[in-house]
Amino acid sequence: xxxxxxxxxxxxxxxxxxxxxxxxxxxxxxxxxxxxxxxxxxxxxxxxxxxxxxxxxxxxxxxxxxxxxxxxxxxxxxxxxxxxxxxxxxxxxxxxxxxxxxxxxxxxxxxxxxxxxxxxxxxxxxxxxxxxxxxxxxxxxxxxxxxxxxxxxxxxxxxxxxxxxxxxxxxxxxxxx
Length: 177
Hints:
three-stranded antiparallel beta sheet, 177 residues
């Protein structure tokens, strides 16, 4: 068995051309990636935190004073990241926690509330609570009258606490949203 001595590796035109092409493609991909990410960041889309705004809500005046009722708030997130409503409390004449609930129907077309847990507010969207979806369930104060303003503290996972008011509204004056 004879083994030929190894030949020395050397540059030739083909190897040099292939190496330059590979380097040029890698450089082009890198530059395009940097340009794309830079334009995304300059447009305000990269790393933008959640920006939560809670607009004036409404609290339904229950038929039986002091019984549980629902509060509804429009929650707007203009930021680039989602946030979650994790808890809420009522201040004033009937202080206490508010439970995040969802409206459900049973087989006999009876309505009931079910605990819902945290509510996600996706980036660049509005979460509109309604009688047919999510709400904050609170114990109404017997002193509440139509037109009263009730103050709530809504706590978001990323944004933290936000104070918002809700107007006490008789059930018959609520639009069917």
